[in-house]
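Duplicate of #3305? Posting structure anyway:
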């Protein structure tokens, strides 16, 4: 029996994690669940999985849900609740499936307690990759990738020597607006941005995919997860999202991981690693797919990807600010306060006003995160 806790249980990754648990009821027990504001689903989940500890977004929501929960469940709320669920149960595996850099404190708390991390929340590594990976190393904790590209790279590296890796390539679908020129991006709507061509995901990530910020975050995530320099991390446009990513070795061999675009596959792999369990996910038929397409990335068309590489190479608070400015700008786009293209100009402007600190401790990182959000909200 694997004991698990899920931070962000009501989201796209969280619900698919619980689907995996439902498919293998004899293999997993849920010790903790944490959600934000979707109280109906949270109450259903807590009643179905009966975790020892559960947490919801704030005190008011906690008062609303408390009478609807089964007896014996300890209920928490807010950031303290996230930390309690991540670090204060008997779970040995924590799936970090919350969105945004608010995932950093509970993920660090879980690592500090020696729990294996299934990492979907890429913002944690972009915000404080040096702190997270250093703590994981000290505690001997595995950070198992859930993000589809990183799960692919992780699988392609299996049993190989890191010294033999020439480069890795993360594939990018191109997002909702991949067929549009920059001129055509001027009038796109929120509804259009939310239509990802291949994946069904949370709103923030779907917009990040359209701006190519997501691939930028993933390049930085790959740097920290696999310890590779940025000049060994490439991005390739691949509209079908069938090849999830690949590794090129020094003998010229290329090892790729393929599959249908279904996040339950990488989620389950992280949950069962190093074992592989059966899965009901649709099988890939290359004969049915017929053709796969690839194209070099156009950094003029997708300037946020260029910015992400620049920030990654600087390190320290540069990536913290890149991420936080993006989170704040995307939140404004979702409230229809700003246009789609304004997301990238806000990120650029906030970065241009930031003096990065390279050896940043947690306090400095959190201050930079707050500063970038405030700046992005004011522009
Ligand atoms: N979806 C996908 O296919 C993939 C996602 N990821 C990464 O996984 C993470 C989650 O993405 P996704 O599942 O799409 O996002 P969703 O928006 O679907 O879900 C986000 C989750 O975070 C919770 N949450 C948000 N704010 C708070 C808060 N203040 N306190 C507590 N919980 C909160 C939400 O709760 P509630 O809904 O109750 O408010 C929800 O459970 C992101 O970092 C994303 O980049 C990576 C690869 C693929
Ligand atoms: C499913 C997943 O891992 C997402 O992060 C995905 O990468 C989004 O796809 P694109 O960013 O390539 O559009
Ligand atoms: Mn991804």
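Output from current build:
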């Amino acid at each position: 029996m694997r004991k698990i806790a899920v931070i962000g249980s009501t989201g796209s990754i969280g619900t698919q994690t619980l689907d995996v648990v439902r498919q293998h009821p004899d293999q997993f027990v849920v010790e903790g669940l944490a959600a934000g504001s979707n109280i109906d689903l949270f109450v259903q989940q807590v009643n179905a999985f009966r975790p020892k500890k559960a947490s919801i977004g704030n005190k008011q929501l906690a008062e609303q849900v408390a009478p609807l929960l089964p007896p014996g469940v300890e209920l928490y709320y807010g950031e303290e609740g996230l930390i309690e669920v991540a670090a204060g149960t008997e779970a040995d595996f924590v799936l970090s499936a919350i969105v945004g850099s608010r995932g950093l404190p509970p993920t660090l708390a879980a690592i500090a307690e020696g729990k294996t991390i299934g990492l979907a929340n890429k913002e944690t590594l972009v915000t404080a990759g040096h702190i997270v990976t250093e703590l994981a190393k000290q505690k001997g904790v595995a950070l198992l990738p859930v993000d589809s590209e990183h799960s692919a790279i992780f699988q392609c590296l299996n049993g190989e020597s890191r010294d033999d890796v020439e480069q890795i390539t993360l594939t990018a679908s191109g997002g909702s607006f991949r067929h549009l020129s920059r001129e055509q991006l001027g009038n796109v709507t929120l509804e259009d941005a939310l239509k990802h061509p291949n994946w069904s995901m949370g709103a923030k990530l779907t917009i990040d995919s359209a701006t190519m910020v997501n691939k930028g975050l993933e390049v930085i995530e790959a740097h920290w997860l696999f310890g590779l320099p940025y000049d060994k991390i490439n991005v390739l446009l691949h509209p079908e999202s069938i090849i999830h990513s690949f590794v090129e070795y020094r003998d010229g061999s290329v090892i790729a991981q393929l599959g249908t675009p279904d996040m339950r596959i990488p989620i389950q792999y992280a949950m069962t690693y190093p074992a592989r369990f059966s899965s009901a996910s649709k099988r890939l038929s290359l004969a049915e797919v017929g053709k796969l397409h690839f194209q070099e990335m156009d950094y003029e068309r997708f300037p946020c990807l260029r910015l992400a590489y620049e920030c990654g190479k600087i390190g320290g608070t540069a990536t913290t600010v890149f991420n936080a400015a993006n989170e704040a700008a995307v939140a404004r786009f979702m409230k229809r306060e700003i246009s789609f293209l304004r997301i990238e100009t806000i990120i650029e402007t906030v970065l241009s006003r930031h003096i990065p600190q390279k050896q940043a401790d947690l306090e400095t990182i959190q201050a930079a995160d707050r500063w970038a959000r405030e700046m992005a909200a004011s522009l």
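Confirmed duplicate; merging threads. The mean pLDDT is 98. Residues 147-149, 218 surround manganese (II) ion (ligand 3) (CB under 6 Å).
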